[in-house]
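Section 5: illustrative case.
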């Protein structure tokens, strides 16, 4: 299933089978490989490979137990089930340093292994991997197989399972699996899997909040999510509703509730919604004293102009920083058919800012997408005759420019950050594939769709052959320093 793993193990298959067949007296039929180096030492040669036959013979050795010299007795904690597997110490030692150490110190032909029930259930798959370098598995078997690979220090399988899990985060499962994988990765110190799970949960939080998996998250994971500014969801109100459901379901201690409630960005909620929360939310009514200062600052933020507010308060703090909201007041979706064909443009409107003071003000934005825009660092500004070089050329990179249609004095003290969410279809589900942040043009970050093959209709960056984007405009306020008399 994971090609790299297969290659890693099969590279030892010839030597391994040769050693076993020498012991069994069947060398002639074991290896069928010819490697003739051409004259001149060029390295090119003819190869006949029967590696598949070798793997089949190794699998037959495992299944039939021919010339086995060690018995693996796999016991669960309650000893309810016992598995006994006939194996070959040469195979185990070659593939697993942990097995090699156990076999060197053993005093009988049987190795007793204590495994959890979930690991014992897939132990035969794990041993088969050591012989064949391949493994077939279901989604729920990923964690126990990763555990076994980690325990027995089978690096190829461990890396392969991490890759499998990161590629299957969007898969549907009855009770969800991403949260469980995150907690497991945190426990064993798999930073790659941990970060992939956290990013998936952050970028697809709106759908996660609607799943049964949400209320199962730990308080540690909850706080990790609440503190992030790259959460993708409809609005801050949606996040508060999810938090309230989590608190009601889990009944955590008071300090955990207070810390979680203080991570909510109340200033991003309209005043009428804030008032509704104060009068109708049982959680906020109970813990209102712990967030009273945040609510007071939020009402001030909505009643005064941001420019005036910035003279007296630090508006650069997280309370006044938008997340990636999908609500129409913050941006617009944009589906680009045939994204390699030519330039495209679109226009959309957003509210000037989250402040109630700006609720009636709108900004019109123009967005331009170019599939082949040559980056500045690759662009020769002038030809020999002094004429400017064209900027849209073959071999250029995709680029998006987002600019306001008009300028306004209301923009004073506001820095508009643009965020492009690239949506994609994974395992039949639409998910956020990548997020790019910039001020005016995606050329500023230099890696916009740099790895995307937009010419291939099956590209993981495309949905039904189209590039599916969502542009978010995030007003960030600047603190003004006033001179004291």
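Designed sequence:
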């Amino acid at each position: 299933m994971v090609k790299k793993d297969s290659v890693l193990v099969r590279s030892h298959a010839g030597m391994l089978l040769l050693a076993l067949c020498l012991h069994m007296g069947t060398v002639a039929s074991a290896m069928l490989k010819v490697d003739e180096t051409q004259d001149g030492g060029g390295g090119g040669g003819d190869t006949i490979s029967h590696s598949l036959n070798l793997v089949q013979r190794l699998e037959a050795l495992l299944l039939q137990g021919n010339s086995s010299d060690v018995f693996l007795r796999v016991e669960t904690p309650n000893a309810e089930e016992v598995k006994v597997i006939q194996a070959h110490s040469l195979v185990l030692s070659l593939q697993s340093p942990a097995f090699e150490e156990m076999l060197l110190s053993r005093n009988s032909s049987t190795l007793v292994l204590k495994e959890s029930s979930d690991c014992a259930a897939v132990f035969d798959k794990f041993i088969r991997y050591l012989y064949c370098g391949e493994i077939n598995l279901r989604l729920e078997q990923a964690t126990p197989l990763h555990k076994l690979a980690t325990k027995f220090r089978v690096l190829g399988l461990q890396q392969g399972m991490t890759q499998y899990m990161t590629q299957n985060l969007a898969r549907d499962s009855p009770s969800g699996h991403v949260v469980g994988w995150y907690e497991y990765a945190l426990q064993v110190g798999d930073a790659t899997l941990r970060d992939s799970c956290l990013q998936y949960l952050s970028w697809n939080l709106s759908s996660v909040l609607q799943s049964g998996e949400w209320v199962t998250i730990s308080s540690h994971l909850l706080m990790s999510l609440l503190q992030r500014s790259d959460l993708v969801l409809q609005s801050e109100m949606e996040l508060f509703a999810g938090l309230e459901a989590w608190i009601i379901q889990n009944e955590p201690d008071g300090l955990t509730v207070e810390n979680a409630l203080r991570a909510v960005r109340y200033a991003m909620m309209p005043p009428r919604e804030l008032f509704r929360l104060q009068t109708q939310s049982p959680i906020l009514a109970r813990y209102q004293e712990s967030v009273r200062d945040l609510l007071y600052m939020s009402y001030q933020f909505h009643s005064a102009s941001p420019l005036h507010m910035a003279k007296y308060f630090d508006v650069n703090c997280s309370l006044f920083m938008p997340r990636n909201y999908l609500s129409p007041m913050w941006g617009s979706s944009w589906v680009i058919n045939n994204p390699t064909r030519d330039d495209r443009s679109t226009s959309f409107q957003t509210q000037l800012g989250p402040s109630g003071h700006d609720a009636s003000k709108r900004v019109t934005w123009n967005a331009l997408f170019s599939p082949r825009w040559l980056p500045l660092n690759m662009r020769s500004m002038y030809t020999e005759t002094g004429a400017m070089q064209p900027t849209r050329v073959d071999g250029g990179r995709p680029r998006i420019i987002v600019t306001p249609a008009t300028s306004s004095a209301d923009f004073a003290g506001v820095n508009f950050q643009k965020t492009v969410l690239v949506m994609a279809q994974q395992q039949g589900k639409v998910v956020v594939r990548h997020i790019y942040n910039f001020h005016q043009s995606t050329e500023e970050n230099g890696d916009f769709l740099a790895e995307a093959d937009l010419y291939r209709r099956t590209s993981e960056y495309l949905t039904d052959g189209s590039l599916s984007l969502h542009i978010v405009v995030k007003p960030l306020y600047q603190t003004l320093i006033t001179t004291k008399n």
